[in-house]
Amino acid sequence: MKNLLRYSVVFFVLTIILLLIIPLPAALVDVAIILNMSLSMMILVITMTIREPLEFSIFPSLLLITTLFRLGINVSTTRNILTNSGSSGQVIKAFGDFVLQGNVVVGFIIFLIIVLMQFIVITKGAERVAEVAARFNLDAMPGKQMAIDADLSSGLIDEQQAKARRAKVQREADFYGAMDGATKIVKGDATMSLITTAVNLIGGSIIGVIQSGDTIGQVLNTYSIATVGDGLVGQIPSLLISTATGMIVTRAVAEGSLNEDVSKQFLAQPNAIMMSGIAVAVLSVIPGMPVIQLLIVAAVLISGGYYMSKKIQSEPSYIAAGAYQEAGRGVEMGGMAPAQQEAAAAKPLTEEEYYKDVNNVYTLLTVEPIEMEFGYSLIPLADESVGGRLISRIVIFRRQYAQDMGFVIPSIRLRDSSGLGTNQYSIKIKGEEVAKGEILMDYYLALEPESPEKEIDGIETIEPAYGIPSRWIRPEDRERAELYGYTVIDPLSVMVTHLTEVVKQHAYELISRQEVVQLVENVKKTAEQLVDEAFPNIITYNLFQRVLTSLLKEGIPIKDLETIIETMMEVIADTGLPVKDTDAIVERIRTALKRTITRMYCEDGSMKVITLDSELERTMAGSLTKGGDGHYLALSPDILQSIIQQTAEQLRKFNGISQSPVILTSQIMRIHFYRLIEQFYPNVRVLSFNEIANNVQIQSIGSLNLQSGPEVANWK
Hints:
The chain is of the alpha/beta class. It folds into 5 domains: 15-259, no CATH class; 269-321, no CATH class; 366-505, FHIPEP family, domain 1 (Glutaredoxin), CATH 3.40.30.60; 511-592, FHIPEP family, domain 3 (Helicase, Ruva Protein, domain 3, Orthogonal Bundle), CATH 1.10.8; 603-704, Rossmann fold (3-Layer(aba) Sandwich), CATH 3.40.50.12790. It is built from 27 helices and 14 strands. A 4-stranded mixed β-sheet has the order 2-1-3-4, with helices on one face. A 4-stranded antiparallel β-sheet has the order 6-7-5-8. The chain has a 4-stranded parallel β-sheet with strand order 13-12-9-14. Strand 10 and strand 11 form a beta hairpin. Helix 3 runs parallel beside helix 8 (216-249), helix 6 runs parallel beside helix 8 and helix 10 runs antiparallel to helix 11 (291-314). The longest helix has 54 residues, at 159-212.
C-alpha cells in the first residue's frame, strides 16, 4: 500500500497517457471530468491560502500534469463525440443544454467569451508577471546573498539559518524560472481548446451528414450541444488553473494569505471606504439610476468605514500588523545618548580647571581599539532609552564572532562628534579613521539589482560596506522597490553591517599581547599540561601572536587553539629553535585546520574555485627572490598586470554564487600569491590543495593563465 501511495503520481501520469490511446466509456469520462474540476478548484483554493509561493513549490510540475490530464480528457471526449453521434456523457450534455438554452448562437458566443477572457486577459497577464518575476529574482540574487551575509556577520543569524536562507533564495529563483516556462503551457492549453472545439464541430458535422443523412440544421444542433459542453468542461478547469497561476506569481510582496492581506490592508484604509460610499451616493442623483440599490451600497460603505475609523482610533494596535506600519521599523527618533546625559549631569569643573590636574591629561593619551563616532541625528540609534538597538546589535555581533572565529572583539567605544555631519559616522581603529559613511534616518537603502526593469525614485548613493550602487528611498516606496527587485535595508542595519565588515577586516590588528595571554590562560583550563610544556620555553608569546595574527588576517578561525599549539610544537621540533620562518608554521597549521577551512567554503560537498595554470605556477616559482623579510615574487609588470586583470574577470563568476571567492594554488605558492593580490582583492581567499578535505569535490569555474602580452588600461 505504501509503495502504491509513493508512486501514485507516476500511476496517474501513466493513466493520463492511456487516455490518449484507449477509448473510455461515457461513464468513466464523466468521472475524469469531475475529478479534473475538483482538482482545479483545490489548486485555486491552495494558491489563495498560502503565505508565500514556495509553500506550493510543486505548482509548475502540477500545472504540467493537470494540463496533460485535460488534454487526455479532450481526446477521449472528442473520440466519443465523433463516434457516438455527439454523445460523450451526462456532464458534457448537461453543460451544453444549460448554456445553449435552445439557442446555438448564444451558446457559442458565451463559450468564445470565456475562452478569449482566459487567453487574452488572465493567461497573457500571468505570463508577463511570471516573466518579470523570474527576471527580477535572478537580478536580485547577489543583493539578497549579501544581505544574508550581512545578517550573519552582525550576529542576527547563525550559519545554519544563513544556509537555509541561501537555499530559500535559490529555490525562489528556480521556482520563478519554472513558472516563467509553465505559463507558456497555460497559453498553449487555451489555444488548444479553440482548435479542439473547431474539430469537434466541423468533424462531427461532416460525419453526421455523411453517416446519418440528417439535415445540416439537425446535425449542427446535435453536435453544437456536445461541442459547447465539451469546451466548457475543459475551459472551466483551465480557467481556474490560469487564475491560480496568476495568483501565485503575483504573491511577491505578500505578508500572509490572500484573505489576511485583503482584510488587513482594506480595513487599514477606512477613509477610502467612506469616500467610495459618498461617491456611490452621488451617483443616485443621475436620472434613471437605481436609487435604492445605490443608497444601500453607499450606506454600507460609509457606515463600515466610519466604524473602522473609530475602531482604529480607540485601539491603535488593531492594525499593528498592517503593511503600512512596517515602513517605520528600525527607525527610531529620540533624545540624547547616555554619554550626553552623563556629561550633562556631571559638570563640577570647567574644562580648564579639569586639565589643571596633570593626571587628567594622561587620559588624552589613551587610544581606543575600536571607536565609532556619529553625528547628532544618529544618536537615537545608540540611545537605548528611546529604543536604540545599536548597542544590542554590536553585542550580538561580538558574541557570534567569538563563536565563529575564537577571538573576542574588544569593546567598541561609541561617541557623538561635532566634527561630523549630522547624518555621518566614522569608524576608527586604534585612533585612526579607516571607514566613513552617511545614512538618512527617515529613508531606507535600496540596493540596485544588476539590470532593473524599472528604476525607483530616490537619492543615489553607494552602499558603504560592499560598494553596491544604491538609492535612499522613502518608507512608502519600500514595497514597490522590493517588487522591482531591489533589496531594501533599514538605516541601522546599513550602519551595523558597515561596522561589522570593517571590524572583521581589521580584526588581526586588534589581537594584542594581553589578548594572546588571556587566550592561552583560557586554553590552560582544559589543557594545562600542553600549555605548561609549550609556553614560554618552546613557543614564545611573541611568536604565538604573530601566528594568530596571520591566521586572522586571512579569515581563518583560531578557535581550536589546542590544535594550533600542538602543530606549532611539531614544526618547532622538526626545525629547531630559534624559529625564523613563521610562514612555514602558518602553512602547517592551515593544513591541520583543513576541516574548518573546508567547512567555510564548501556547499553541499562541493567547492567552486579558480585555479592557477601549471605554466603560470612554474613562472611564479622561478621568480621567487629572497629578501630581508623572506621570499617574494619578482614578476614583470606585464605578467603582474595580466594576473590582476584575469583575477578581476574570473571573480565575476562568483557574483551569482553564495560562496566566497576562492583561488586554489599549490602549497608552496599559496602565501606568495596571496600577498601578490591582497592589496587589490583583500576579500579573496587563497587556499592550497592540502587545506581541502578529501571528501570534498573541487569544481573549477575558471583559471588564471600566463598572459604577458597586451596592455590593459586601468588594471589597478
